[in-house]
């Protein structure tokens, strides 16, 4: 796996590494090196050399905070003898780092990853109000969904929505979903399915604004999702479905939406709920909903991020008094 060195003035590199791993999961072959106020160029160069020596790969990618700064200059000195394999990208931000982490799943060359992360790094720089954002040429996307409304009954593609992931997550659309999971399943739409959120204009607005580049985000009530699943106009829609509760997921499944597996990401703790791991809390109603989904043939995949090891939910639920 490509080795990644995060290099910065001060502790920025260590902080952004922690942030990236919160979203994507623990990473191998990654080191953060820092240039502290009391240190000089030789100190950070030594740290870089130690990091390189610890990697099990001769492919190295430097992600540095500032072009022309001391961390960049020392990385550039090391780079000179490895121009055929190594790469340096300056202007490190969290979007760029997440793209680098997930890019290692499919790319084994540092220079290929460097090329792939530049645009996502730029796309991470946004501003509100949107009128302050510089205008850019419209980018081509692979989205094959119809660009205009179609008459009812029109069959697009095979006439069936492609549900690539159905996830229960009380946080709904957040960093792990917008980056790691959307990268993994590559949907054309992220659809939050919730009667409660669909009635909340503020939450709806925040969710649609948080959509990653090139992917549309929608918030719809449960009955609308059931209706869409039977509408042939969505035959070229690839969807990532987000549910706030297992009860909402159950209603959709009972309504006829074809979901074979449910990913369980997080369920917030509240009064009356029992913690079954560090991110999942349930009560009797939740357990009953999981049991009824299982009766409908649904299996469960407990993972925060794609790189986590998949686990079944039932050994966790047995920690409660609601499962024999």
From TrEMBL:
<keyword id="KW-0597">Phosphoprotein</keyword>
<comment type="function">
    <text>The phosphoenolpyruvate-dependent sugar phosphotransferase system (sugar PTS), a major carbohydrate active transport system, catalyzes the phosphorylation of incoming sugar substrates concomitantly with their translocation across the cell membrane. The enzyme II ManXYZ PTS system is involved in mannose transport.</text>
</comment>
<dbReference type="InterPro" id="IPR036667">
    <property type="entry name" value="PTS_IIB_sorbose-sp_sf"/>
</dbReference>
<keyword id="KW-0598">Phosphotransferase system</keyword>
<dbReference type="GO" id="GO:0009401">
    <property type="term" value="P:phosphoenolpyruvate-dependent sugar phosphotransferase system"/>
</dbReference>
<keyword id="KW-0808">Transferase</keyword>
<dbReference type="InterPro" id="IPR051471">
    <property type="entry name" value="Bacterial_PTS_sugar_comp"/>
</dbReference>
<dbReference type="Pfam" id="PF03830">
    <property type="entry name" value="PTSIIB_sorb"/>
</dbReference>
<dbReference type="GO" id="GO:0016301">
    <property type="term" value="F:kinase activity"/>
</dbReference>
<keyword id="KW-0472">Membrane</keyword>
<dbReference type="InterPro" id="IPR033887">
    <property type="entry name" value="PTS_IIA_man"/>
</dbReference>
<dbReference type="Pfam" id="PF03610">
    <property type="entry name" value="EIIA-man"/>
</dbReference>
<dbReference type="GO" id="GO:0005737">
    <property type="term" value="C:cytoplasm"/>
</dbReference>
<keyword id="KW-0963">Cytoplasm</keyword>
<protein>
    <recommendedName>
        <fullName>PTS system mannose-specific EIIAB component</fullName>
        <ecNumber>2.7.1.191</ecNumber>
    </recommendedName>
</protein>
<dbReference type="InterPro" id="IPR036662">
    <property type="entry name" value="PTS_EIIA_man-typ_sf"/>
</dbReference>
<feature type="region of interest" description="Disordered">
    <location>
        <begin position="124"/>
        <end position="153"/>
    </location>
</feature>
<keyword id="KW-0418">Kinase</keyword>
<keyword id="KW-0813">Transport</keyword>
<comment type="subunit">
    <text>Homodimer.</text>
</comment>
<dbReference type="GO" id="GO:0008982">
    <property type="term" value="F:protein-N(PI)-phosphohistidine-sugar phosphotransferase activity"/>
</dbReference>
<dbReference type="InterPro" id="IPR004701">
    <property type="entry name" value="PTS_EIIA_man-typ"/>
</dbReference>
<feature type="domain" description="PTS EIIB type-4">
    <location>
        <begin position="159"/>
        <end position="324"/>
    </location>
</feature>
<keyword id="KW-0762">Sugar transport</keyword>
<dbReference type="GO" id="GO:0005886">
    <property type="term" value="C:plasma membrane"/>
</dbReference>
<feature type="domain" description="PTS EIIA type-4">
    <location>
        <begin position="1"/>
        <end position="125"/>
    </location>
</feature>
<keyword id="KW-1003">Cell membrane</keyword>
<dbReference type="InterPro" id="IPR004720">
    <property type="entry name" value="PTS_IIB_sorbose-sp"/>
</dbReference>
